[in-house]
Fold this protein.
Amino acid sequence: MPVQRFRPYTAQRYRLEAKKCKKCGKIHFPPRLVCDKCGGRDFETVILPERGKIFTYTIVRLPADEFKYYKPIPVAIVALENGVKIMGQITDADIQDVKIGQPVHFVFRKMREEGKRGLIQYSYKFKIDG
Ligand SMILES: [Zn+2]
């Protein structure tokens, strides 16, 4: 049986881990070292809600070669239940089902494979509810 190799990935990618500024409360995803709102450098870890609605989206019709199996790719900005907006791919969807206001939920998916050695990179995506 072939040995599966995994790229190291960070917690923010597999459970929507964000950083909340202790000074002003702004939530950053992906995390930053310095808050862009107040300049604060002290953060606490928060886990973002896994459900939200499509705030806006675009359809990427000519993605890079390594993503060719997935095209065309809907890429959305999702407004999560706590109001934080994050960008992500919409997976397993027919293009006509991707609409503003559509409820979606977080999934953890394979992003791409690299070459014959089978390096696999994972990240979050969103899937339409239903
Ligand atoms: Zn701040």
